[in-house]
Model the fold of this input.
Amino acid sequence: MKVIGSMTAMQRQSDEWIRSGESVGLVPTMGALHEGHLTLIRRARKECKRVVVSIYVNPTQFGPKEDLAKYPRPRRQDLAMCRAAGVDFVFAPQNLYFPDHSSYVEETIVSQGRDGTSRPGHFRGVATVVLKLFNLTRPTRAYFGQKDAQQVDVIIRMVRDLNVPVKLIIVPTVRDPDGVAMSSRNRYLSVEERATAVKFAQLLQKATKQKSKPASWLSRELKRVTSLRLDYVEVAGDRLCAAVFVGKTRLIDNERLVS
Ligand code: AMP
Done:
């Protein structure tokens, strides 16, 4: 497994595989890898000749009061997990922005509402870094998790609108046995907070089975849980999406509505 640390080295490598015609699978991550990420990586391993995992905590998708500085960065452990999963290349740059970077990608419809309201500028940062990663690694296929439902919506729309030559593969949410969607941010949770996260997952699951107004039902039930603070509940397409704060940790999750 090769670790690549600069944009120029990454471009040199992707030039090579474009010349050779090999299929390349990209799994973009912010590190602190868990079984959710590994599921994406395994799928890429099965479907592509070369697998690239990017590990980059992208500053442009964090708000000024968010957890950029304290976001977990267990680099050695991440690399060991990638190696064990048969990854060919880890792209782990220190920085992806020129000091005078001034170009951004902005999706203007599906990035509205949900996290788009709670985290202004977040999806502009996501779309920009994902397009940069596509241009640097030039993947045949790129793998994203359904856990970040609105991120998936934004990237699908960006790829379509800007004619980006990549096939997107969306992988179902991977959950711990207690039902909580796996997330790098779950590391922040205390034992008591973890119990609240379980409650959040259970109520979301139960809400999808309500015959009428699942969003109102979930909103009402979540407001009753005193150990969490509701951020939003929204229906988007056929999915019920929600975000809550448990202590200082923000958790998002979504489930398909049972019709
Ligand atoms: P992150 O490192 O949190 O930016 O996530 C990197 C990729 O892994 C994104 O496409 C996420 O949607 C995906 N991912 C994160 N957690 C999960 C999960 N529990 N199940 C499936 N995919 C996930």
About this structure: The chain has a mean pLDDT of 97. The two ends are 45 Å apart (CA to CA).
